[in-house]
Write a structure and sequence with these properties.
This protein has 10 helices and 14 strands. The chain has helices at residues 50-57, 79-84, 101-111, 121-127, 143-155, 173-188, 200-206, 224-229, 274-283, 298-306, and strands at residues 4-15, 24-35, 39-43, 65-70, 73-74, 86-89, 161-165, 192-197, 209-214, 217-223, 233-240, 253-257, 263-268, 288-295. A hairpin with an 8-residue loop joins strand 1 (4-15) and strand 2 (24-35). The radius of gyration is 24 Å and the shape is elongated. Bound molecules: adenosine-5'-diphosphate and magnesium ion.
């Protein structure tokens, strides 16, 4: 078996064009390997192309160019096997309102050709906490229940790879915990998990490796630990008590002064502790009236990674 759960080469998607309106380049030649057994995070701002990539993996969007291999099966040459290897929990709540949770799971299993005796709707209903609602119409389910049902549907055919597109966007803490627990357990049982998110805490809590997409291009691909290492950039904003004669100086500090007189000091917390920054400020003879620090977040990483483009 291939060591990579997913291999993507030169993946390109152009929406529209011709009589479908202006062209939109959603993916611009992505190369990406996702190792087996990983919990892999696909991060990026809105419009980066995350859902497009995932929907191509799921077979819901037709790629314009490139090659996708899922669990060793080329998507074009072995469409059936590659599709059977992956389950996708989509971003949108696209449930048929006339199905009950049990019905939806059974229909999905049928679509994937799972023989009746291999179906495990009860087990899945239990896992997603919907056994009580097994016979309720989807339209009577809450948003959170629908999301859980989407997770259940992604699992009916025992896929090797589970993909979740923004599973916790806008969900309450309880549901997020439940989704995280399920992801961890499934991964522990050997399933490769790919999730998109724009919550850094989620990526930090869940993912071994991360790829960052921006404007249809891969701008980073690293272990979570390495990527978070880049994230210790901090900014301290100081209001001096009076005019500043000399700017503070110190190792690993980048100092500038704003129009309103405030000092903006950028530093990396690991190399330069906040204490060292404050000492440098005192050495420069500056008395501080107010101080505040800003921690880098994912947005800063995006900015950092995309500034050069
Ligand atoms: P993300 O999931 O990262 O927010 P998407 O993959 O949804 O990004 O979108 C990437 C780009 O492709 C965006 O510019 C979006 O407007 C465009 N796009 C997505 N789906 C379609 C579509 N069905 N038709 C035309 N453009 C689309
Ligand atoms: Mg999306």
């Amino acid at each position: 078996m291939a060591a990579n759960a997913i291999e993507i080469r030169g993946l390109t998607k152009i929406y529209g064009g011709g009589r479908h309106g202006p062209e939109r380049h959603a993916l611009r030649g992505i190369d990406l390997d996702i190792p087996q057994g990983a919990v892999f995070g696909l991060l990026g701002p809105n419009g980066a192309g995350k859902s497009t990539l995932i929907n191509i993996l799921a077979g819901l969007v037709i790629k314009t160019a490139g090659q996708v291999t899922i669990w060793g099966f080329d998507q074009d040459r072995n469409p059936r096997q590659s599709r059977a290897s992956i389950g996708v929990m989509p971003q949108e709540l696209n449930l048929d309102p006339f199905f009950t949770p049990r019905g939806a799971l059974e229909v999905q299993a049928g679509l994937y050709g799972v023989p009746r005796r291999q179906r495990r709707s009860d087990e899945i209903l239990r896992m997603i906490g919907l056994e009580d609602k097994a016979e309720a119409y989807a339209r009577t389910l809450s948003g959170g229940m629908r999301r859980r049902l989407l997770l259940g549907k992604a699992l009916v055919h025992h896929p090797h790879v589970l993909v979740l597109d923004e599973p916790t966007a806008g969900v309450d803490i309880e549901l997020r915990q439940m989704l995280w627990e399920n992801m961890r357990r499934l991964n522990h049982e050997g399933m490769t998990i790919i999730l998109t998110t724009h919550y850094l805490e989620e990526a930090e809590a869940m993912c071994d490796e991360i790829a960052i997409l921006d404007l249809g291009q891969l701008v980073a691909r690293d272990s979570t630990a390495n990527l978070l290492g880049r994230l210790d950039a901090k900014t301290m904003i100081l209001q001096p008590d009076g005019p500043v004669q000399t700017l503070p100086e110190g190792v690993g500090m980048e100092v500038s002064q704003r129009g309103d007189g405030a000092l903006v000091i950028r530093y990396h917390a690991r190399e330069t502790p906040a204490d060292a920054v404050l000492s440098a400020v005192r050495r420069a003879g500056i008395t501080i009236r107010d101080v505040k620090t800003e921690q880098a977040d994912l947005q800063d990483v995006f900015l950092d990674l995309t500034r050069r483009r």
